[in-house]
Specification:
Blueprint: E1 5-7, H1 21-30, E2 33-39, H2 46-56, E3 59-62, H3 74-88, E4 101-110, H4 114-117, H5 119-138, E5 143-148, H6 151-160, E6 166-169, H7 175-183, E7 186-190, H8 200-208, E8 214-216, H9 232-237, H10 252-263, H11 267-281
Parallel strand pairs: 1-2, 2-3, 3-4, 4-5, 5-6, 6-7, 7-8
The structure holds zinc ion.
Length: 291
């Protein structure tokens, strides 16, 4: 029997999967990736993402991603709240309208992209981040965080608005920042980036952080693992995503193997551990038969 895995972060609604989404999911399932959590990036995608989650019976999150904050409008927050409310309303048989909504995300702060570091844009990012944290608290949803050169600022927000935790995705900060996130109820997401030999600090985090704090993710179609790059030059340039090196959820078990090796545990133990952790921080995943 194939081992069961959860891809805790996968953008299956991305245009890169437009032509072969069925095949991508079938490949994932054939290697034991039973469930994907699909975070959204902007309000205009919410409805399509919800339909996709229903159609493929996958989990999803709603939120406005920091890279999409420049074009975001305040009324997008109204649509976000309305969509959460509709999903969490009870139907006539007393069940949640849409139990596949498992988190608020992907939200956060990005202080890596130059445009987003300009003072006005920093303020706008902070505004959307805080507004969405408040919604997560109000609707008791865990949060999927985008962290890039922003861990301290994100932590400040989390101390001001106490949400129930969630996942700091593609985490690549310090041990101290990791520890603070863990204390606030967060697990840390690891994927393609830790498969590169030169990612020393990241590999150390992946190897040494407490076992209960680790979850796996592909972030597909982004962050391909090293084996999807064909040449040394391609790898060094982190060259653009082509059909040949697009990341996809079926890569997750091999990332799991890399992580198991880093931590010196068996693949089966690593799979079990990361699934338990993912379900703990995203409790609604318990309702999925495939999880
Ligand atoms: Zn993402």
């Amino acid at each position: 029997m194939t081992v069961k895995w959860i891809d805790s972060h996968c953008h299956l609604d991305a245009p890169e999967f437009e032509l072969d989404r069925y095949e991508v999911l079938a490949r994932a399932q054939s290697v034991g990736v039973g469930l994907c959590v699909m975070p959204s990036v902007q309000a205009k995608d919410f409805a399509a993402l919800q339909n996709m989650a229903l159609h493929f019976d996958q989990a999803y999150a709603l939120g406005i991603h920091p890279l999409y904050v420049p074009q975001a409008l305040e009324q997008d927050l109204v649509l976000l709240e309305d969509s959460i409310q509709a999903a969490q309303a009870l139907n006539s048989s007393g069940k949640l309208n849409d139990p596949r909504l498992v988190a608020l995300g992907e939200i956060g702060l990005d202080f890596f992209v130059p445009l987003l570091c300009e003072p006005e844009m920093r303020d706008k990012q902070e505004f959307f981040y805080h507004a969405q944290l408040k919604l997560a608290k109000k609707y008791q949803l865990p949060v999927i965080l985008h962290v890039r050169k922003s861990a301290d600022e994100l932590l400040r927000g989390l101390r001001r608005v106490r949400v129930q935790g969630g996942i700091a995705h593609a985490f690549n900060g310090s041990f101290q920042q990791a520890q603070s996130l863990i204390e606030l109820g967060f697990a840390l997401g690891f994927g393609g980036a830790m498969t590169f030999d030169r990612a020393l600090q990241l590999r150390r985090l992946a190897a040494e952080l407490p076992a209960s704090s680790i979850v796996l993710e592909t972030d597909a179609p982004d962050i391909p693992p090293h084996w999807l790059y064909k040449t040394q030059t391609q790898r060094q340039c982190g060259e653009g995503l082509t059909a040949q090196n697009r990341n996809e959820p079926s890569e997750l078990p091999q990332m799991g193997a890399a992580l198991a090796q880093l931590r010196g545990i068996s693949l089966a133990a690593l799979a079990e551990l990361t699934v338990i952790n993912t379900k703990r921080v995203l409790p609604k995943l318990q309702f999925f038969k495939s999880a």
